[in-house]
């Protein structure tokens, strides 16, 4: 029996050169590892049905549901600044788009679904580690209120995947997204001089994400604004994406492609985790300027749709430059709330920057220091607490003008983030067959602003020997 889902596949109705049609490649022994009940209900899907053998077969890629139009999307991209004209879904198959009961449209994609025409030298598969990592981090981001792709399910394949000359358990992630259209998707058509393709793609993006928008310039402005908000949200959580290649930037404004991403423990603006980011291109503090770089690539792609070249270049440049004031305002609002200011103004910026500077030089834990402003424990996060004590009087003086700074801070500063050492602990246990650390971490991250005593251990910063310095690509 095949499952029936409310599919309406607008991307699959685009011309054939947008993708390669193919079914996911079946796996040997599918077994459900995790199912996101709340997300299933949000989509209008019955969690019970997804957990049946038929449901699991679909989530593993062994059965294609009725109404699906499976395909691998074509895209290009700049990887670490280097141009790659053809990337595409090398290990992911889009089953189709489902329309939720409230009319919202979501891509349903299987990641790790086998080889596609875009696989190059890759095996098209994923292993358990990156699948659980993306599950945990993307769901934590959603719970923290950050626009993101979601994780509906993780299944074990019963197959072995070889990574770094090691056999590892294979897995498939079911990813849900507003769409999987990337800056790199626009680059794919622009690089081929395919103006008709660009136009169709822009129309699809407008229809799906920015229905109020008229024309390519307004579309660019909308994407710029969405990215400015998104990157500011990352920064306010100490989140480092790790691979902000243009193919990993969704035009919807959702965080996408969780690879070597990480939340900082100790704060430092130059923090890098990714093992392949040798020069720190995607370091924490570089993220806004990298976003601008990527948006400039998008702008370049849209020029052929924007009429007279000189005027188009001028308008597109202005639209991209619009990132800076939007980002700065969003950054100020978010960091202002983190220190208890309901509506920070530019005069408050030095106060915030002074705190961050002290946190950096005293290796203060990012999440715990800000949460510590709520609980009164912030000073103990600083290697030299005096660095906090000499900042606090100005802060207190400023708070005297606020109505309810405690409530503002409590809502802006999470208690829990998915810490690297906890994610790794959960993955190591899962590889050994014990899913309980993963399940517990997952449950704890669903409500990251609450502090129930049973999750107190997950609030702790890593002890020196537990610190994770390097994270790896999700391949
Ligand atoms: P990522 O770094 O995960 O954004 O992936 C970059 C590109 O490599 C994309 O085109 C992926 O589809 C492709 N890719 C990553 N891992 C694999 C794999 N195991 N097999 C085939 N293609 C892959
Ligand atoms: Mg990618």
From TrEMBL:
Its cofactor is Mg(2+); Mn(2+). Belongs to the SELO family. It catalyses: L-histidyl-[protein] + UTP = N(tele)-(5'-uridylyl)-L-histidyl-[protein] + diphosphate; L-threonyl-[protein] + ATP = 3-O-(5'-adenylyl)-L-threonyl-[protein] + diphosphate; L-tyrosyl-[protein] + UTP = O-(5'-uridylyl)-L-tyrosyl-[protein] + diphosphate; L-seryl-[protein] + UTP = O-(5'-uridylyl)-L-seryl-[protein] + diphosphate. HAMAP family: SelO. PANTHER family: PROTEIN ADENYLYLTRANSFERASE SELO, MITOCHONDRIAL (PTHR32057:SF14). Its EC number is 2.7.7.-, 2.7.7.108. Mg(2+) binds at residues 248, 257. The gene is ydiU. ATP binds at residues 88, 90-91, 111, 123-124, 175, 182, 257. InterPro entries: SelO (IPR003846). The keyword Hydrolase does not apply. Keywords: ATP-binding, Magnesium, Manganese, Metal-binding, Nucleotide-binding, Nucleotidyltransferase, Transferase. The active site is at 247 (proton acceptor). GO terms for molecular function: AMPylase activity; ATP binding; magnesium ion binding; manganese ion binding. Nucleotidyltransferase involved in the post-translational modification of proteins. It can catalyze the addition of adenosine monophosphate (AMP) or uridine monophosphate (UMP) to a protein, resulting in modifications known as AMPylation and UMPylation. It is an enzyme of class 2 (transferase). It comes from Paenirhodobacter ferrireducens. This is Protein nucleotidyltransferase YdiU.
